[in-house]
Amino acid sequence: MREELNDYTGVLREIREDPEREALATAAKALKKAIHTLPSNNNQRVKQPAVSRRTALALFGVGIGTSLYLLHNKRALSSTSLSNTNEKTLAEKNNTISKSSTPKPNEPNPSPTISPTTIVPAQTTPEVDSAPIIKTLTPSPEATKERSNNLYLELLKPFIIEAQKRRSERQQTDPEFNHRVDADLNRSRVNFLLFGYGDTFESNNQARIGSPTIISIDLDQNTIDMVSLTHDIEAVEIERFQEKKYGKKAGPSKIDQAYWIGGFDLMRQTIEDATGFSVDFQITMNDQILADMDDHLLHGLEVDIPFNLETQPFYYKNKKYLGEKFSKGRQTLNGFRLMEFMKALPKDYDRTTERNVRKKIVFEALLNVIKTKLFSLEILNPINNFGVNLINFITNENTAGELNTDFDIQKTITNNLKSLLNPKILTSLLVNKKFPRFNKAIYIVDSQSGDGGVEWVDANKNSIIQSEIKNGFYGVTRAPAFEIPFGANPTSKDLIEGYWLSVRKLIKSKLLD
Fold it and tell me: How far apart are CA 267 and CA 214, in angstroms?
């Protein structure tokens, strides 16, 4: 740890030589003092567990980088008034800072390839480079240059490397992997499956339902795409899993039951069959987490609502509430109002105010506020440090079982922060930060409610489906509450081609065309 602290000695020395050194040095000293007051053991059973010293050190580094970033901006603004001599002196000083913080020669820089068909094996020796550049399968020189000094890609680097490793392993052990996962769709992407579950928020139903959503990060385009699937879709994979397990034919199962019936493995297989995405990482979470984050961490989330909305009555925590109104424009929502805005049914249905549309609005607002708080002067606050509070919040929810993952989330957080410990990386990343923007949101549901790809089961013309409806397989209601892909044949041996094809074609056409 002392060696890591010494890495910042040169940076602090340069700050002291600057006219603004007093304020910046004071902030740096406060953070350094806070580090030494933190316990060295992170396994204490307390309500709000303290982060480790290494994590605090990483946040200290981010604080120093932010200071230098602000210093850089002020210098840039005042550069027009400097004389040529002063500009030369300033350039020499900046060069000194850069030299004092050059990474060690033996520091590796992995260059992972994200592709389900051409993947660098995990044992491959990482490339050594002076700058962190994350490459994709076929980058143009311009694209590679664009990824240099990209902050969010540095934060994603542990995920990119792990995704590469997982795809390679599954490609070797799963004979259906290359058939299930679309190579073109996944070539420059890292994909997270977020499965949120909770109250239905429907006035006549208090059952627990879930919502599978793929968060796909396109490394080439610096964008985030969202693909959500309605929970009403029938997933034959679940029925076959149950039949194999219990030895008898299972009834129809909706796609949001995959996790509860077969865990992460069945949920991954089902979503990959349905979408063509490689499900690299999976996260399940109680929807209440978003409300708790809003109330206790963000203290209100500012959301820019592009429409007026009035909701139907709904259930929340086993209590029925009357519908409320949301006005167009910017407004700060507490946890309860946030949940109502995102999940309640609209009083007057309109595709432009559908729940998936509102989900994207909320996710964009969350990304913006976290980005702003992490990379601003707030990170210099040793008493109420947002980075520390965010880590503690995630750790608590994970420990309580409200948030589960198929990867070690705490280890990943540590690795992400360690990647920012190098002072040169810190300063260059914060000066040249480029954050991804939300791009496309696709909602797989009947065309009256969203983007299509599926239809209500009683509209399907397949004779097998019609026979099962008559035999009561889907229940005795006049309009069975299941949706299936267009032309789907649930008895097909190849569910990818025989059952899910319309969904897969829709997703690929919307994202790649």
Answer: 12
